[in-house]
Specification:
mainly alpha
């Protein structure tokens, strides 16, 4: 397994775990008189995003230590797969930005706007990583 493929696995796992922790933290506040939109989401969002960044840095270091070849020696296939995964994933950032724009136009609570953007980033990471991993296993699509 190449350095880039290991990195894609780490990125996928960190994204899913980070968002799951965020959901648990926010949803645990709901109940009684507190609605979902009234839940304190800012601190959990900042901590889970920060934690995911730190976890990504640590995972990158560990993957580069455990990789048999230097990380800067990626071949053309690795670069094409990375480009493919990034393009697939970035489409969800655009969708999330449009969703946040529509929510802002309807003057929706900040909670929903922030969560739409955060979900878009998570979906971008997950779908981009899955696209990269699929390309490693089955090859790039021939368009």
């Amino acid at each position: 397994m190449s350095y880039e493929e290991k990195n894609a696995w780490a990125f996928l796992v960190i994204s899913v775990v980070g968002y799951t922790v965020y959901l648990v933290l926010v949803l645990s506040q709901v109940g009684g008189a507190t609605t979902l939109a009234q839940a304190d989401y800012v601190a959990p969002l900042l901590w889970t995003v920060g934690g995911a960044i730190v976890a990504g840095i640590i995972a990158g270091i560990l993957v580069s230590i455990g990789s048999p070849r230097p990380q800067d020696r990626t071949d053309l296939r690795d670069k094409q797969i990375r480009w493919f995964g990034d393009r697939v994933g970035q489409s969800f950032v655009v969708i999330g930005a449009l969703a946040a724009l529509v929510l802002a136009m309807f003057q929706t609570d900040y909670f929903w706007i922030a969560n739409a953007v955060y979900l878009a980033f998570v979906l971008s990471a997950v779908v981009g990583s899955v696209a990269r991993l699929t390309a490693y296993r089955r090859g790039l699509p021939e368009w």
